[in-house]
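Narrative summary of target 7.
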Amino acid sequence: MPTVPIAAASLTFALAATFAAAQSPPVAPTQSVAPPPKPKPCTAPEHRQFDFWIGDWQVRDPAGKPVGENRIVALHGGCVLLESWSGAGGFTGSSVNGYDADRQQWHQTWMDSSGGVLQIDGRFADGRMTLAGDAPGEKPGDTIRNRITWTPLPDGRVRQLWESSNDGGKTWTTAFDGLYSRK
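Modeled conformation, tokenized:
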């Protein structure tokens, strides 16, 4: 019968340990701090600076002659503007536009039915969007500086003025001057 006192002692010890554990203050679990929620992409005011260009447009030259149609749509949650140009003479082209938050500027890549490619960058300032960039000229080694300005007008129209320079920006020639009216 010597095993009964040992079993009773073991039981008593186990109950005492359980009672002591129940009386101890609980150990707080390690708390993890959740990172703050990330802001929704492309919602900063800078991403909305070119929204005045979104729409379906009839485009005319300064004399009022129709020169083409343009459709600009916002894609990818407003992060990208896609342009689809159709000129009166059958010339077509598209551009992808977006605000590059890392560089704090806008970027456009244009490609068209003639094989032309244009990459321009810039900012919205003084109530208008101005993008500029260099492209190869007619002769090897020549560079043409392009500058395109979109100005929203009080009546809802938009003026697009494309100028080019082959002397590093000392003088400018108008390549395109179009007045956008909503269809």
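The mean pLDDT is 88.
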